[in-house]
Amino acid sequence: MGNRGMEELIPLVNQLQDALSSVGHTCSLDLPQIAVVGGQSAGKSSVLENFVGRDFLPRGSGIVTRRPLILQLLSADAEYGEFLHCKEKKFTDFDEIQQEIEAETHRLTGSNKGISPVPIHLRIHSPHVLNLTLVDLPGITKVPVGDQPSDIEYQIRDMIMQFICKEHCLILAVTPANMDLANSDALKLAKDVDPQGLRTIGVITKLDLMDAGTDARVILENKLLPLRRGYIGVVNRSQKDIDGKKDIKAALLAEQKFFLSHPAYRHMADRMGTPYLQRVLNQQLTNHIRDTLPAVRSLLQDQLLALNKEAEEYRQFNPEDLARRTKTLLQLVQRLSVDFEKLIEGTGDDVETVSLSAGARINRIFHERFPYELIKMESDEKKLRREINYAIRNIHGVRTGLFTPNMAFEAIVKKQISRLKGPCFKFVDMVGQELTSTVYQCINKLSSFPKLRDETERIVTTEIRQQESRCRDQVLLLIDIQLAYVNTKHEDFIGFTNAQRTNNQNNQKTAPGSTGNQGVIPLSSLIVIRKGWLTISNIGIMKGGAKEYWFILTAESLCWYKDDEEKEKKYMLSLDNLQLRDVEKSFMSSKFIFSLFNTELRNVYKDYKSLDLACNSQEELESWKASLLQAGVYPERVTVDAEGNGSPEYFSDPQLERQVETIRSLVESYMSIIYKTIKDLMPKTIMHLMVNSVRHSNTHLNRCSA
């Protein structure tokens, strides 16, 4: 650039960044830097490797970058790399650099694809690079894999936001050309924090993989979604090239040839490609540092004054003065307690706007992550129906069961309740980890007093472990209590409420002195699967013609009423031996019709061989057919597994299917009560036994300090 002072700006900021990291500083100083943001497989790693001209970043499927990598490129005569966590070693073999990144990542995150916000600092000296500092962030993902937490998408988003929401951070938004720019996760995140596009630099990758006849010219000309700093296109190596160890220099020549020969890009070829991108980033970061330097200097001076003021308080300090030592100790412990209280309870002063506080993260565990784990249990209806099917058949044994066995309901319910132990224990672990990380965050402020810090850490983490153990015991007790007694008289239980309503209605009709046996009805007939209006369309004009009625479908019958007040019942049709078929829609009719018929060729309704029912829409028709399928009424010519295995939606015995549907409805009703109870009790239990206990552990600290 011709200005030696300007060229030294980037290395100067690098030294400042290293100094803050090496002393364990939380880096409240907003240093100028470039954060690389993009979805998985967007080509971020290839762009960075092209800058260096070497393969040095881990590769694979899923999330590969699981910790922020602060990559400092420095122009030098020799070529080597060095890490901040092992300063004494120079890595001349770039395969070793890759292995060290993987090892350092696993050290904090393990091998289960988890992530950590703690950055890895890598500095690469090379004659082939320009001075540049980039922060490579984990790729944005939607679906958790392996043992990743269910909210991995939000964790990655939070980590990215911690970097890009800072005013002094430039955003390198990497988007592949073969996806719609409007759906770019990188640009969406950038727009959230930089709505005017002042800090965002767009990079479009995979231009060579676009469909034939399409190009990204309008994007690269900054006409589609304009950014103040514009877009730059690059062409990276393909996966085949990487696997074949294609030389990066050869890839850069191929990239240059692509832009020069492509009709849509040749007029802007001098403003495309990896070398041009590197020059632009070097220039823009240098200018950005120059522009923000006064503000950084002012902030450093303010922090220096604050530190000098604090140091002044200790100049008169006599290490042998026991009273002064005790007072200082108590002040530090009290400050730790106050800091922890603020992080958990929240505070109106100095509100964090970059990331969630500990209390907010625990609240999210309470009301988002734990309920999500329960929903995952609820959603596997296929497995539930299969288990009910086997339970009923195993209870009947060689006999043919005429009635739905109560034992099947209780066995399935208890199995479902026992499965709650996993999500509940995971819940305890998540809160325990959050409390531990919060404690470490507070204890770091005691770094000037190593013995006090270590003793405080020991006391509080021991308290957390003890309370975790108590919490687990309490969870087991809560689940054992639910297993001890299945309360089918609960007011919210569908079997109880329906039976109670029916008994009340029948008791009103029973004459005085009668036994009241009319109130004893099969429980399965009480399970309402669906209600709605249908038109009986095959009644002749002489008998009144087509007419609309209010239908109620249960696991045993289909009955219809004059209207939805359900007072005047017109007919109740047993579902035994019924199947359904589609009826072709007539030219003059606007209705969608299906027909119920008896497989033994008996009359279905009065003197009618079939009952033709009409809906107002195709969607309504499909919904009724699905509901009838749940009740054991199958479409005509359905093939069924002779062994009764396979898909649980289909059974060779319609009566068994109705029994399964009855038990399934009862189990879902009862488990909804259990889920509601557990969702209410678990946060209260953890709050009482863990969170509040750790908050009050300052009494232990005070005893220690005394």
UniProtKB/TrEMBL annotation:
<feature type="domain" description="GED">
    <location>
        <begin position="660"/>
        <end position="706"/>
    </location>
</feature>
<dbReference type="GO" id="GO:0005525">
    <property type="term" value="F:GTP binding"/>
</dbReference>
<dbReference type="GO" id="GO:0003924">
    <property type="term" value="F:GTPase activity"/>
</dbReference>
<dbReference type="Pfam" id="PF02212">
    <property type="entry name" value="GED"/>
</dbReference>
<dbReference type="GO" id="GO:0005874">
    <property type="term" value="C:microtubule"/>
</dbReference>
<dbReference type="InterPro" id="IPR030381">
    <property type="entry name" value="G_DYNAMIN_dom"/>
</dbReference>
<dbReference type="GO" id="GO:0005886">
    <property type="term" value="C:plasma membrane"/>
</dbReference>
<feature type="domain" description="Dynamin-type G">
    <location>
        <begin position="28"/>
        <end position="294"/>
    </location>
</feature>
<dbReference type="InterPro" id="IPR001401">
    <property type="entry name" value="Dynamin_GTPase"/>
</dbReference>
<keyword id="KW-0505">Motor protein</keyword>
<dbReference type="InterPro" id="IPR000375">
    <property type="entry name" value="Dynamin_stalk"/>
</dbReference>
<dbReference type="InterPro" id="IPR020850">
    <property type="entry name" value="GED_dom"/>
</dbReference>
<protein>
    <recommendedName>
        <fullName>Interferon-induced GTP-binding protein Mx</fullName>
        <ecNumber>3.6.5.5</ecNumber>
    </recommendedName>
</protein>
<dbReference type="InterPro" id="IPR019762">
    <property type="entry name" value="Dynamin_GTPase_CS"/>
</dbReference>
<keyword id="KW-0547">Nucleotide-binding</keyword>
<feature type="domain" description="PH">
    <location>
        <begin position="527"/>
        <end position="633"/>
    </location>
</feature>
<dbReference type="InterPro" id="IPR003130">
    <property type="entry name" value="GED"/>
</dbReference>
<dbReference type="InterPro" id="IPR045063">
    <property type="entry name" value="Dynamin_N"/>
</dbReference>
<dbReference type="InterPro" id="IPR011993">
    <property type="entry name" value="PH-like_dom_sf"/>
</dbReference>
<comment type="similarity">
    <text>Belongs to the TRAFAC class dynamin-like GTPase superfamily. Dynamin/Fzo/YdjA family.</text>
</comment>
<dbReference type="InterPro" id="IPR027417">
    <property type="entry name" value="P-loop_NTPase"/>
</dbReference>
<dbReference type="GO" id="GO:0016185">
    <property type="term" value="P:synaptic vesicle budding from presynaptic endocytic zone membrane"/>
</dbReference>
<dbReference type="GO" id="GO:0031623">
    <property type="term" value="P:receptor internalization"/>
</dbReference>
<dbReference type="Pfam" id="PF01031">
    <property type="entry name" value="Dynamin_M"/>
</dbReference>
<dbReference type="InterPro" id="IPR022812">
    <property type="entry name" value="Dynamin"/>
</dbReference>
<keyword id="KW-0342">GTP-binding</keyword>
<keyword id="KW-0963">Cytoplasm</keyword>
<dbReference type="Pfam" id="PF00350">
    <property type="entry name" value="Dynamin_N"/>
</dbReference>
<dbReference type="InterPro" id="IPR001849">
    <property type="entry name" value="PH_domain"/>
</dbReference>
<keyword id="KW-0493">Microtubule</keyword>
<dbReference type="GO" id="GO:0005737">
    <property type="term" value="C:cytoplasm"/>
</dbReference>
<dbReference type="GO" id="GO:0008017">
    <property type="term" value="F:microtubule binding"/>
</dbReference>
<keyword id="KW-0378">Hydrolase</keyword>
<dbReference type="GO" id="GO:0098793">
    <property type="term" value="C:presynapse"/>
</dbReference>
<dbReference type="Pfam" id="PF00169">
    <property type="entry name" value="PH"/>
</dbReference>
<keyword id="KW-0254">Endocytosis</keyword>
